[in-house]
Design goal:
Chain lengths: ~300, ~350
């Protein structure tokens, strides 16, 4: 029954592509008929995708092979191809894990990111919900102000923040980071969640109100369960941002055992003008794995929150 | 169950007033339908009843108690929304039990009451499903179930059937009506569909532009519309209107602007003397026109048979007039027929104020 329509839909494609298209007549088009013929598809879809993938993945590839190269191989382009590992070695990883404080840095980064993320999410949920749904006077303005706060670059903000960190006696402690990361995480998450809350029909809340729920109950029992995809994507974003954060971590932390991965790797594995490339790359690789794993777990939620709203 | 009293209620959004003083008295157990064209303020009024909108002026009382400042959860009302507003992340059972759960009812009682309501609405086998797994009609029933479970003082419905297809709408209409007969709870039902209003209501409130035009039983509104608006709004196909004058003479006659002259038979009290020559509008329902040799000449424009009757669009003295016949006349476009209103079945309205004149 559905046969007739898709056939008709491909008609213009037949006309344009001439005999070549006709030859493979079995192919069924599904609407976007400019993507239908193979040569076209190669040019419009696969080629750009390949280029994109290459640009995206090559640094990772470089990171991986450098991690497993010995120094002789790394510095000798004549005898060894730079794009391949001939004698893989675990030396760099061994150095990273047993001769530096890398495991502690990982732990620090994890603690700081997780705590800062949850703290920011909590604040962002309250702020986003209040701005979007409580309709108080000036809620629009507050929303704009929060967004503007996000636009202030950390490279300017770290100077006043460092004064505050010092005077609270937080310098060189995890709290210095846990409490400063939310300055950029909260605005970001608030904006993301505001958009998400807006997509939840107002009627649901009114219905809950009539059913006898309080504001808090509405937030916890209706809004949050429906905003899970939004929460997850805000969480992932916040986590990634804190995981990779550099400036604050560099300024507010001084002792080796308190450093985070991004700072520790570049400050401890570069001695003067000596770059320990192998270990540096190993550190970067190990540091990006947790984030990659996190993304792969939640990618579906993440995409749905970027593209879709709540469907009843 | 409770009586609801709406007295002098006004509502303004910012500077614009959308409800201009509405008085409605709803008796205990009555099924009242608010009907009117889009944007006339039906939903706003209902939402004020529910406590979702503040009341700018006037009072609303439920069961003798003024509820102007009482929050929705303490009003003991249940509302069915146009889009059902089912909680998408809860099963049908949880949707229906949500309000009881919030009230802290024991699990056994929730279970019992949800099952009871489900049995009434034929939802027994759907309790584990989620809203997205239900058809439109089933969602509608769940939304009603959610209201029934609470056993509220007042049921509020806001165009609950407008998202359903025509056939289902008729079926649900009957179902809601049957439900009301069974539960006997005070109900306020909003619709813009006058057929829904006519078929379901104990009492209809016709609203227009934030004002109540007329309140009455369905047939009362049909037989004696208070004004031109109600006359044109209630009844389908709509009433025909002929602007004209009254000429008192040997027998008083109505003479339309197009020159059609009709004898005014009935009014024994007589058309008041002041009325002579005054501009009026004569209204006559399509089903009250019949073929008569002494009637006015009309030209047939379009003929639409519906099976049970035929609807004939005609030109009568320059005005468009529709007639409905149960007999199977074989008219063609261009035919000339003579039609006259059935005796006593005409309505006279003042042309300026739109008010009903005698009879
Ligand atoms: N929140 C609001 N702010 C300003 N004006 C509003 C608001 N809500 C409703 N109105 C206005 O109030 C009037 C009545 O709206 P209401 O929703 O009650 O109409 P309705 O009779 O329910 O119409 P419909 O049949 O289309 O649902 C409309 O003119 C509308 O524009
Ligand atoms: Mg409405």
């Amino acid at each position: 029954m559905t046969d007739a329509t898709p056939q008709r839909a491909t008609e213009p494609g037949v006309a344009r592509d001439g005999p070549a298209r006709r030859g493979r007549g079995g192919d069924e088009g599904e609407g976007m008929d400019y993507l239908v013929s193979l040569p076209r598809r190669v040019v419009t879809v696969y080629l750009p995708l390949l280029v994109f993938l290459f640009v995206l993945l090559f640094p990772f590839y470089w990171m991986v092979i450098t991690t497993f190269k010995s120094n002789e191989e790394l510095y000798d382009f004549k005898d060894f191809s730079p794009f391949w590992v001939v004698h893989p070695t675990l030396h760099n990883l061994h150095k990273l894990f047993f001769e530096t404080h890398y495991p502690i840095w990982l732990w620090n980064t994890m603690v700081v990111s997780v705590v800062a993320t949850f703290l920011s999410l909590f604040c962002a949920v309250c702020a986003g919900y209040a701005i979007e749904r409580l309709r108080f006077k000036g809620s629009r303005l507050v929303g704009m102000a929060i967004f503007l706060a996000y636009l202030v670059p950390p490279s300017i903000l770290f100077i006043p923040l460092s004064t505050m960190v010092f005077s609270y006696g937080l310098f060189d402690s995890k709290f210095a980071l846990i409490l400063t990361y939310p300055t950029f995480l909260i605005p970001f998450c608030t904006w993301l969640l505001m958009g998400y809350f807006r997509s939840i029909p107002y009627e649901l809340e009114e219905c809950a109100l009539i059913d006898g729920a309080t504001r808090l109950q509405i937030l916890v029992k209706i809004i949050l369960p429906l905003a899970v995809p939004g929460l997850i994507s805000a969480g992932i974003f916040a986590f990634t941002l804190s995981w990779n954060e550099f400036i604050y971590a560099l300024t507010f932390i001084s002792s080796t055992t308190n450093k985070t991965v991004p700072v520790g790797v570049v400050t401890e594995l570069v001695e003067g003008d000596v770059y320990h490339w192998g270990s540096l790359m190993a550190g970067a690789l190990m540091g990006s794995l947790p984030v990659a794993v996190l993304y792969s777990f939640f990618v579906e939620y993440y995409v749905s929150s970027m593209t879709g709203a709540v469907k009843e | 169950m409770a009586a609801v009293d709406i007295v002098g209620v006004r509502k303004a959004f910012g500077a614009t007033e959308v409800i201009h003083g509405v008085d409605i008295a709803i008796a205990d157990g009555q099924f009242v339908v608010l009907v009117g064209p889009s944007g006339c303020g039906k939903s706003t009024l209902l939402r004020m009843l529910a406590g979702l909108e503040s009341i700018t002026d006037g009072t609303i009382s439920i069961d003798g108690k003024v509820v102007n400042l009482v929050p929705p959860k303490e009003r003991d009302i249940a509302m069915v929304f146009q889009n059902y507003a089912l909680y998408p992340h809860m099963s049908v059972f949880d949707n229906m039990g949500f309000s009881l759960k919030l009230r802290g009812a024991p699990k056994a009682e929730i279970d019992r009451r949800v099952k009871e309501a489900a049995a009434i609405l034929d939802l027994d086998r759907l309790l584990e499903r989620f809203p997205r797994q239900l058809s439109g009609g089933q969602r509608q029933r769940v939304a009603m179930g959610r209201a029934i479970v609470r056993d509220p003082k007042v049921f509020l419905f806001d165009e609950p059937l407008s998202n359903l297809d025509a056939k289902l709408r008729v079926a649900m209409r009957t179902e809601i009506r049957a439900l009301h007969q069974r539960l006997r709870s005070t109900t306020v039902y909003v619709t813009h569909d006058q057929i829904e209003a006519m078929t379901m209501a104990d009492k209809i409130v016709v609203m227009h532009d934030g004002r109540v035009e007329q309140i009455g039983e369905p047939l009362e509104l049909y037989d004696r519309p208070d004004n031109l608006f109600v006359a044109g709004f209630i009844g389908s196909p709509a009433m025909n209107f002929l602007p004209g004058r009254i000429e008192a003479g040997a027998g008083p006659r109505f003479v339309s602007d197009g020159g059609v002259s009709l004898p005014l038979v009935a009014p024994p009290g007589g058309v008041g003397s002041g009325i002579d020559g005054r501009p009026v509008v004569l209204g006559v329902r399509p089903e009250h026109l019949h073929l008569a040799d002494e009637g006015a000449a009309a030209e047939v424009l379009v003929v639409e048979p519906t099976g049970s009757e035929i609807q004939v669009f005609t030109k009568l003295g320059g005005a468009d007039v529709m007639a409905v016949f149960r007999e199977r006349h074989r008219f063609r476009p261009g035919d000339r027929i003579r039609v006259a209103p059935l005796p006593g079945q005409i309505h006279l309205f003042d042309a300026e104020s739109g008010r009903r004149l005698v009879p």
